[in-house]
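Hi W., the flavin-adenine dinucleotide complex you wanted:
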Amino acid sequence: MIPDTFEYAAPTSLPEVFDLLHQREGEAKLLAGGQSLIPLMKFRLAAPALLVDLRKVPHLDVLQERDGSLVIGAMVRESRLDTSTLIRTRYPGIHDATAVVADPLVRNFATLGGNLAHADPANDHPAMMLALRAQVVADGPSGRRTLAIDDFLVDTLENALALDEVLTEIHVPRPATRSGSAYVKLERKVGDYAIAAVGAQLTLDGDTCTQAGIGLTNVGPKAIRAAAAETFLVGKPVTEEAIREAARLAGDAADPATDLRGPAEYKRAMVRTLTARALRQAFQRATGATGGGA
Ligand SMILES: Cc1cc2nc3c(=O)[nH]c(=O)nc-3n(C[C@H](O)[C@H](O)[C@H](O)COP(=O)(O)OP(=O)(O)OC[C@H]3O[C@@H](n4cnc5c(N)ncnc54)[C@H](O)[C@@H]3O)c2cc1C
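Structure:
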């Protein structure tokens, strides 16, 4: 439970971060909230020679709507998302996901950037970000690039960042009118990682779906987009029958493993149930029954 020895740096600008990552290529790790990295180090599953703390780097804590998107700085902590009126009222799916990440102690430290960059299929935000069609911004010594969240999440604990790049911002498209989102999680006990969870987003024209997003948590090597279920919903009225068929297709998209959280077939069945619940909640929010927002 004691990490191997490591050096520590707390740079005050992104160029300093890039320099450190370049000088110690492959030996350095970025430190955000430390809620995934430090436990890994304590178990000696990770032993970086240098930790580069992002806490003193400016401008990574932005949280505002700008140019058609919600912009969330990578260092915005879960506790801030949890208490933000903007998130609660306009992006309820993100609020739902935040509220079920671990416990308040973890949420006081954990950051959205760390949650996504860690690329753990059990983390809650990746699936919600898939449903919302988020983009992530990576800064590095050769400039800035923007990636779809689908391309950012490569595999278990693997993201698309180069060794000298930093995830700096997450951009979520601003909700069109008659949009709603929701995140529904099944866990063994409060604060646990998901047995399975589903993020859903719907945009409606009347009762007809014009855009659908569905992301699945902890039922595959990475968060999964239920693409066939999304395609099925678009262009159709969001009836109970359509929701059930989309939920069936989402279950087919899951690729769960049997483990301590249950057999694979149980998890697939739970994906169907949770998808139906998330879609119903997103629909209610889109139609104003519970306050609207994306
Ligand atoms: C008891 C416990 C329960 C938990 N339960 C849940 C849960 O139910 N759901 C859930 O989603 N999570 C859960 N977590 C994980 C928690 O949300 C983590 O904090 C989160 O996954 C990582 O965020 P962090 O800011 O702590 O990142 P860190 O631990 O600091 O970093 C994680 C990884 O991301 C990299 N990284 C961090 N920031 C950046 C960046 N800006 N650019 C590039 N790379 C970066 C780091 O180098 C490291 O490899 C739990 C954690 C604990 C300790």
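DSSP finds twelve helices and 14 strands in the chain.

W.
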